[in-house]
Design a protein that fits this description.
Blueprint: E1 6-10, E2 17-21, E3 24-32, H1 39-49, E4 55-62, E5 68-72, H2 82-91, E6 97-104, H3 111-128, E7 132-136, E8 138-146, H4 150-159, E9 163-168, E10 172-180, H5 184-192, E11 197-201
Antiparallel strand pairs: 1-7, 2-3, 3-6, 4-5, 4-6, 8-10, 8-11, 9-10
Helix pairs in contact: 2-3
């Protein structure tokens, strides 16, 4: 991706997809996640839904600058399931996502090559059935100032079309803003140079 402050993800679960090969059925799913703890309840829910299935293989990726990821073969031969699923997450360039493929064994062994193809195809179909969005990496700031300086602060917010997340407008005012990463240094400098105005970058 060219733009350093853009990334792709999904904001709602994708549609269930089905791939069949030699009587084996592979159900593919994609879910938006924001942290690793989101994964276990989703897998548990799918295990209840598909209690007669044989394998629940998955891969996930989190983060934008610093990437976390994992793949799980869940009893299939090593790297025949989780890794092909993760390969599709990379191919579609999506993050903050979990892709799960549930397999019902049809009585005929597919071999490692057949499994790799089946899990890869199911993950691909699942991502194609998802609504993939482009989002910006945003940096949050808190601006602190006295009420008398409201106009000069608001002028910059208006001129630069800055998104206000929250505001406390009393004698001592605080405005929480969110700006795209690529212009965050410029915005920080603009407010830093204002007399009697403080700007602080927030970590989360």
């Amino acid at each position: 991706m060219n733009n350093s402050d853009l990334y792709k993800t999904i904001d709602s679960p994708g549609e269930e997809v089905l791939f069949k090969d030699k009587n084996s059925k592979f159900f593919g799913y994609s879910f938006p996640i924001s942290k690793e703890e989101d994964i276990k309840p989703i897998i548990e829910s799918l295990k209840k839904q598909h209690h007669a299935a044989r394998h629940w293989c998955y891969a996930w990726q989190l983060g934008v600058g610093t990437i976390q990821y994992r793949s799980n073969d869940d009893g299939e031969p090593s790297n025949s399931a989780g890794q092909p699923i993760y390969g599709q997450i990379q191919s579609f360039e999506v993050t903050n996502i979990l892709v799960v493929v549930v397999r019902y064994f049809g009585g005929v062994k597919l071999g490692v090559g057949g499994l790799i193809n089946a899990y890869k195809t199911s993950a691909k179909l699942s991502l194609e059935a998802s609504n993939i969005l482009e989002k910006t990496i945003d940096i949050k700031f808190c601006i602190t100032f006295e009420y008398k300086n409201m106009n000069k602060v608001m002028r910059i917010i208006k001129e630069k079309k800055i998104k206000i997340l929250d505001q406390k407008l009393e004698l001592n005012c605080k405005i929480y803003i969110s700006v795209r990463k690529t212009i965050s240094n410029e915005i920080n400098d603009l407010f830093s140079t204002l007399y009697e105005v403080e700007i602080e970058r927030l970590t989360s």
